[in-house]
Specification:
By secondary structure, this protein is mainly alpha-helical. 50% of the residues lie in helices and 6% in strands. It contains 6 helices and 2 strands. It has a two-stranded antiparallel sheet with strand order 1-2. The longest helix is centred in the middle third of the chain and has 18 residues. The chain is elongated, with a radius of gyration of 16 Å. It starts with 10 loop residues before the first helix and ends in a 9-residue tail after the last helix.
Length: 139
């Protein structure tokens, strides 16, 4: 799929919409049987980067490629974008599948633990959720 990069501002948005993480998404859904890891719901699902946040994967990719982070995606050449996509894809394979979560539960995780919760914080969140700490929030 081709995107009009002039309409997409950030590299992060561009990469999330590109096909470079499609196999990772598919593997993540397959590993979870297409169910939320916390509630077991099967609708309104998203994938949480459990092992390394997406932003950190992108920054690691740029660093390994010797590229600087730029404000606008159109500031990268087509060749650079292709190299970045391939590196992001490889790093997603390296770090393994993400955790499938219901959209509201995923938002609550980030509300409670910030934008880059650790793997340990995810499991703490899941324990707290299952122990009804958030029962009034997620009815």
């Amino acid at each position: 799929m081709t995107y009009n990069i002039k309409k997409i501002d950030s590299l992060y948005e561009y990469l999330r919409k590109s096909k470079c993480i499609a196999a990772w998404k598919k593997a993540s859904f397959r590993a979870s049987n297409k169910k939320c890891a916390v509630t077991r719901r099967v609708n309104d699902l998203e994938i949480h980067h459990l092992h390394k946040p997406f932003i950190a994967i992108v920054r690691e990719s740029l660093e390994e490629l010797g590229l600087e982070e730029k404000w606008k995606v159109h500031e990268y050449s087509q060749e650079e974008l292709l190299l970045i996509q391939l590196k992001v894809k490889d790093l997603h394979k390296k770090y393994g599948p993400g955790v499938v979560m219901h959209k509201r539960i995923h938002s609550l995780l980030h509300k409670e633990y910030g934008m880059q919760p650790t793997k340990e914080e995810f499991y703490e969140f899941k324990r707290n959720f299952l122990n009804k700490k958030y029962s009034t929030v997620c009815k």
